[in-house]
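Task 17 of the worksheet. Students: predict the tertiary structure of the chain below and write it out as structure tokens. Keep your answer in the requested format; marks are given for formatting as well as content.
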Amino acid sequence: MTFDIQEELKKLPDQPGVYIMHDAEDVIIYVGKAVSLRKRVHQYFQASHNEGIKKEQMVKKICRFEYIITDSELEALVLECNLIKEHRPKYNTMLRDDKTYPYIEVTLGEDFPRVLFCRSIKKDKSKYFGPYSSAGAVKDTIDLLKKLYQIRSCNRCLPRDIGKERPCLNYHIKQCPAPCQGYISAEEYRKQVDGVLDFLNGNYQPLLRELEQKMQQASDAMEFEKAIEYRELRNSVRQIAQKQKITSSGGEDKDVLALAADDRDAVVQVFFIRSGRLIGREHFYVSVANEDTESQILPSFIKQFYSGTPYIPQELMLQADVEDATVIEDWLSKKRGQKVTLRVPRKGMKEKLVELAEKNAQLVLSQDREKIKREEGRTIGAMKEIAGWLHMEGLSRVEAYDISNINGFETVGSMVVYEKGKPQRSDYRKFKLRTVTGPDDYASMHEVLTRRFSHGQREKEELTQKGISDEYGSFTRFPDLIMMDGGRGQVNIALQVLSELGLDIPVCGMVKDDHHRTRGLYFHNIEIPIDTHSEGFRLITRIQDEAHRFAITYHRSLRSKEQTHSVLDDIPGIGPARRKALMKRFLSIDDIKNATVEELAGIENFNGQTALSVYKFFHGDIETEQ
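Model answer:
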């Protein structure tokens, strides 16, 4: 599907967020953040705007872009960092690592907790808040919290060190209740810590109002220095109060699901959080009836989506309660092998993250409805068409195979994989033929298929013995359909291999006409005609071309290696270092061939045996003197 850049630029929102640039191969080549997505992304495509040679080269390769809106520039910054770490785009420079972002740590593992400044998260009993953009604001806020809630700042180990030393200056200036002297119980002190946690969790309005009042009172009393102090504290509190939804301190794996719907259509936005970081998102178009409610649409989507996905996180965060939640939890827990929880956050950062997902879903629904329909038509819709032609109930994963050789030279096989109508390049495999010599495509295909599926069976058995789900194997996922590049002969070879291995997988052939164009599918000994103007036909053509391209690319790489092969590589005992020494000492292969054993033995890293081996290679065995 053609991506109309100029048309998509008109849809950009004037909101903060992250934009993601893709090239012709749909590889992410750049990730950036923006205060206004509309203004920033427009700049890349303005001839008058100069961002340097590097960006100019990048813009020429952009074939499409996508974006994720956020609630603040800071959130966009953190999300940008996460996405760059995940995808390593070619045209991005290295951003700061997370350790440069400041956090606030509340040491809840201590009997008398402290509030600390830190730059990394540890797996301990402490509670972490952040990351934040301003280290100065964090330090000011920590100082403010210590003053307001009288939190200790010493490093004494309490209650072990109670009474061992005199109270510090903070006690005398009434900024610490001196737990080091036992002047306050752990229970009373914990109430003050709860006030700190309440503030850091977002309930900062009462404190802001109090600082506003004190600033005004000081100003009315003409105590301007004190008024300025209160103003700066208020500004620090405002800055620190920005909720960070893009990175959490828990380090959990979660999926966030939110729905936007109207009377005809619905879009489900899924945010993928891995190890506490938002690393990506997908949106899915859902057809709905007028009477369907959100509590009905979302559980239906969950069941369909997670029945086919290989990984299920420990928690799904939803925007509303759904029907049959307990049953769905039990089903997901069984698939995962561990407890899976459906949760509807009611407050705090998690609720805001769900709201952000919903906001993005609403944006997709309002701006990209037709685009999504076309995309689904050429992928999932095309797979449904193919399944209908073959009278299959469902079709998700397809594997296609092809053989490439030139007069039998370096015969190779290719395996390409399409899932839900899209190429799954991480599952592609290539095979260098071991047992077949000469241009025998049937024997070559027999070897390729035998190696692919026998390997998968062995890997499944090994994982089962270890108690590991076979979803984690590289060859263990078998297709719903095998597509062969050819007709009856290729199909029969595939069916023969499957029969030998005891497997039952449907096989069809992609039959071509005299002009080498796909004309139909060979299935169950019948050639099925297909609509050449349909999305299913276009998908079959893409699969066939991709299998051919992948095989040809591999074959070319092997031919290139063969052409750069040196005769010196065939001499026993000659590796890269000795080959380099030979070429350094002699200018040509003929000079090496004409050299005596004594001359060869004088080369660096050579001994008598190595020199003899080189001489024998060119001259045969040396007669021993009697």
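Marker's comment: The chain is about 45% helix and 20% strand. The CA atoms of residues 274 and 438 lie 49 Å apart.
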